[in-house]
Design brief:
Elements lengths: L13 E2 L10 H17 L6 H20 L6 E4 L2 H9 L9 E5 L4 H14 L2 E5 L8 H15 L4 E5 L13 H9 L6 E5 L10 H6 L2 E5 L11 E5 L1 H6 L38 H16 L3 H20 L4 E3 L9 E6 L5 H10 L2 E2 L1 E4 L2 E6 L6 H12 L4
Parallel strand pairs: 1-11, 3-4, 3-5, 5-6, 6-7
Antiparallel strand pairs: 2-8, 7-8, 9-10, 10-13, 12-13
Length: 392
Amino acid sequence: MQLRQQMPALANKTYFNYGGQGPLPTASLEAITASWHRIQELGPFTTDVWPFIAAEVNRTRRLLAQWCGVPPHRMALTENVTSGCVLPLWGLPFSSGDHLLISDCEHPGVVAACVELARREQLVIDTLPVKHLRGTASDTDAGVLQNLETTLHPRTRLVVLSHLLWNTGQVMPIEAVANQLKQHSQHPFLLVDAAQSMGQIPVQAAAAASDIYAFTGHKWCFGPEGLGGVALSQRVLEQGQPTLIGWRSLQDESKAVFDAEDPFHHDSRRFEVATSCVPLMAGLRCSLELMDQEGPAEERLDQILQHSQMLWQSLDAMEGITPLLSVPPTSGLVSFQLENAPPPADVVTALGKQGIWIRDLADPACLRACTHITTSSEELNQLSEALATHQG
């Protein structure tokens, strides 16, 4: 719990919204501030400041690449999950009549981007059903692969599937999905929304197996909002074209070249756009380093599961409360429904007045509480006791 002591946001509330935004450690905030000061001392636009900025960018890219188990040239820096998904997605080679296969548990932002892409490129959207898979990990994995087999079309060119479903909390078998897609005649691209996985569960194998693995730093990584990344496969770098273009996309940003056949970077930078907030990079690196000090990813997940499974068991034993999963969760997301209770949004408001913060979700209509390595047993008891008052 040493990390918890560095988070002012946890001192005055009972917090279960890590899946929405994680609190920022004081050391990370100080790192951001120190970076701002250094940039102002050196520049902000002088020949002295550019080596500092280049070092900050490269250090951040290397660290994120290390967390994802990919080489740095395949890691692009982004502002959020959606941009990490959409910028490379819209640059993939599609033909009219190609199919996109999207799971029924994807975030609305990514779904909307796929719908608009399909409209512009005359693509067909199919649905991969995974929302109903709420049992054991082995049953879920088998169900995903079986449904994938039956929903793939001969012209499927892209599959969209989150690593960790933001609503039910199920972990998806990304490596197995990637292997199955390799057997398909089209070898569809695999886009993975990693908003809920990065910083919570080990991600290296999944990130390395995906074509687009997009995440943010402001949720489970305890970083500042406005900075994330996307791990890209080599074939995306080779076949994907830039979409939203800025000076960072270019091999030579100092001049406009009208006759260049390919002016863009040939690595992940071809999907980066323009000026980013460099001090945020120092903050995110600090948060990731603090997490590493708490133990390796597997040990951190064990801590998370101790609390999420304790909460699941408590809720499962309470009359009038039904967890979405029929078995203890394999992640820190615990979604549940209350019988004969006010609408979920009203429950969130009522709990907030008690200093307890969870969130409501629309599809399926439920409440969601997230546990992290900073969650305490006392907080779990407070939430369970408070929910008991909303039954019936």
